[in-house]
Amino acid sequence: MIKYAVFEIGGKQYKILPKIPVEVDLQEGENITSKLLMLVDDDKVKLGKPYLDEKLKINKLEDIKKKKIRVAKFHAKANYRKVTGSRKKLTRILLEP
């Protein structure tokens, strides 16, 4: 049984535990492909050089949006005010045991 795994998606590394959802950058489509770096089973630790050949069963749960970030620009005495913002889009994934 897998205790945890470390994998790479979109140039970022994530640690994932079975049955605990993880939020990663937005992934298009239903199939999620990742590169497995490290896998920890009961007492065995497998390290890749740099990646392992094994595949994980990763299920895509949903696409979500984080809370909006508001950025305000202001120049005194110049009558300049500008407000912009962004909302990060993420994908919630789950590792099947």
Automatic annotation (TrEMBL):
One of its GO terms (biological process) is translation. GO terms for cellular component: cytoplasm; ribonucleoprotein complex; ribosome. SUPFAM superfamilies: L21p-like (SSF141091). Keywords: Ribonucleoprotein, Ribosomal protein, RNA-binding, rRNA-binding. It holds the Pfam family Ribosomal_L21p. One of its GO terms (molecular function) is structural constituent of ribosome. The keyword Ribosomal protein applies. NCBIfam families: L21 (TIGR00061). This protein binds to 23S rRNA in the presence of protein L20. Belongs to the bacterial ribosomal protein bL21 family. This is 50S ribosomal protein L21. The lineage of its organism: Bacteria, Candidatus Daviesiibacteriota.
